[in-house]
Amino acid sequence: MSREVWNGPTCVTNVGTYKVESTNHREFYEVVLDGPEGTAICSCPGFLYRNTCKHISMVQRTACLYNPQWFKGNPQVNPYNEALVANMLWPSTEVSLVSFDAIAEEGTKCPNCGGPTYLVAYLG
User: Fold this and answer.
1) pTM for the full model?
2) Phi, psi of 20 (to 5 degrees)
3) Which of 38, 80, 92, 102 could pair with 115 in a Cys bridge, judged by C-beta atoms 3.0 to 4.6 Å apart?
4) How far apart are CA 70 and CA 99, in angstroms?
């Protein structure tokens, strides 16, 4: 059985750099996502010790992250690239997309958040 490769539009939020407010509201950390199946890193001290942290979890729960192969995206209540309010655990914590590391596809919009997309090769 052969598998077919196809290109699908994926939300640029999957390859974004985010500014995430700390839960004590005194500082901001940088979270970087490296693709739908890539790594996530954070500049907070907790990430250095545990290799994961609540700031990464907050981005993963609030950013769109649409991927046509396996994730239809988180529910969006705010337009693309505006400050997002984190989930109920930290209702006043700011999570915002600062930049993305992808070449946006001209004329395409994410079906979930309306932001730009980039093409990714998927196995069908």
Assistant:
1) 0.75
2) -120, 125
3) 80
4) 24
Token couple for 70: 């396996």
C-beta neighbour count of 87 within 10 angstroms: 14
**Structure token pair of residue 95:** 């999570």
- Predicted confidence (pLDDT) per residue in 73-120, tens digit: 777 644 343 444 333 333 445 677 777 777 777 778 888 888 888 887
Beta bridge partners of 30: 19
In the block, which residue shows the tokens 């729960």? 61
Residue pair 80/87 in contact by the 8 Å Cβ criterion:
no
Q: Spell out the alpha helix ranges (H) of 1-122.
A: 45-50, 54-62
Three-class SS state of 20: strand
Percent of the chain with pLDDT over 90: 21
